[in-house]
Write a structure and sequence with these properties.
This protein is an alpha/beta fold and about 300 residues long. It has two domains: about 240 residues, TIM Barrel (Alpha-Beta Barrel), CATH 3.20.20.60; about 55 residues, no CATH class. It is about 45% helix and about 15% strand. It has twelve helices and ten strands. The strands form two sheets. It has an eight-stranded parallel beta barrel with strand order 1-2-3-4-5-6-7-8, surrounded by five helices. Strands 9-10 form a two-stranded antiparallel ribbon. Helix 4 links the parallel strand 4 and strand 5. Helix 3 runs parallel beside helix 4. The longest helix is centred in the middle third of the chain and has 18 residues. It is globular and about 65 Å long. The protein binds glyoxylic acid and magnesium ion (MG). Magnesium ion binds next to helix 7. Keywords: Lyase, Magnesium, Metal-binding. It comes from Streptomyces radicis. Pfam families: HpcH_HpaI (PF03328).
């Protein structure tokens, strides 16, 4: 979904179990770009009904200023999805930015969610189409269909990699999410990350990396985050307050890169102007800059400005 004020910042996306009033409260004070209040795997089956109402209350009464507010519903193969959507959107639709749909396998599943949300928006008198969708890719079928998933609805905002479910579904020989499986000499995640990134970018969406489960190992988190950040991912899930600063830092440009990007933009604006000789390319120090350099610099500068550098 193209928003008038540009894409939302999602460097750090905090998972908050919807069944925990304590975490729903605590999350409001943490410096994350996004929260997602979870009705899926962080909520036990018997706790889901109560969690729906706790989430509605927290969205309506909490202070989420500065954060993108997302609720993760259950996937369409469960008996819970439609009630998750109806309860949350009817009860707190005006205080909600996106729904996250897990284990998405094809475009129909996104369209079904779009239709249901549209119905609830209409019946509740909410503006139609404002609530976005985040789709999690968590198995081989979802990955194979990722292009059609990315373009399935104008509500689509992000494609999210779900490494825990994904690795289980393809039988990868790794028990530690994010760590390389023993025996493979290269980066076993590269293909999946790149595939998701290409689908997301081709559709004009954001690409978000999933969780790192060893929550006390912040260096491990940082290393895994750096891999997807280097490719161009926009952010990563955080499961614990200890991971937040690392995510915000890794998915922001460094001050040095940001300053350089602004310099390239200024220099390019000058050389292409009449005063600067209306040239198409010029030297900036040892580097030649042209229109492609401007585009690359604009990406870094945009992220740096959003991060307040
Ligand atoms: C997240 O949902 C995951 O499965 O990694
Ligand atoms: Mg999952």
């Amino acid at each position: 979904m193209t928003r008038a004020d540009g894409p939302r910042s999602r460097r750090s996306c905090l998972a908050v179990p919807g069944s925990s009033p304590r975490f729903l409260e605590k999350a409001q004070g943490l410096p994350v770009d996004q929260v997602f209040l979870d009705l899926e795997d962080a909520c036990a089956p018997l706790a889901k009904e109560g969690a729906r109402h706790a989430i509605v209350k927290a969205l309506n009464e909490g202070d989420w200023t500065g954060k993108t507010r997302v609720v993760r519903v259950n996937d369409w193969t469960t008996p819970w999805t439609y009630r998750d959507v109806i309860t949350v959107v009817e009860g707190a639709g005006a205080s909600l930015d996106c729904l996250m749909l897990p284990k998405v396998r094809d475009a129909h599943q996104v369209r079904a969610l779009d239709l249901l949300v549209t119905q609830v928006e209409r019946s509740a008198g909410l503006p139609v189409g404002r609530i976005g969708i985040e789709a999690q890719i968590e198995d081989a079928q979802g990955l194979v269909n990722v292009d059609e998933i990315a373009t399935a609805s104008p509500r689509m905002e992000t494609i999210v990699f779900g490494p825990a479910d994904f690795m289980a579904s393809i039988n990868m020989k790794s028990l530690v999410v994010g760590e390389q499986p023993p025996g493979y000499p290269a980066d076993a995640y590269h293909y999946v990350l790149m595939r998701i990134l290409m689908a997301a970018r081709a559709a004009g969406l954001q690409a978000i990396d999933g969780p790192y489960l060893q929550i006390r190992n912040v260096d491990g988190f940082r290393e895994v985050a750096r891999r997807s950040a280097a490719l161009g991912f926009d952010g990563k899930w955080v499961l614990h307050p200890g991971q937040i600063d690392a995510a915000n830092e890794v998915y922001s440009p460094t001050q040095e890169d940001y300053d350089r990007a602004e310099l390239i933009l200024d220099a390019y604006a000058y050389v292409t102007s009449e005063r600067g000789g209306a040239r198409g390319a010029a030297m900036l120090g040892d580097e030649m800059i042209d229109e492609a350099s401007r585009k690359m610099a604009l990406v870094i500068a945009g992220k740096g400005r959003a991060a307040g550098l």
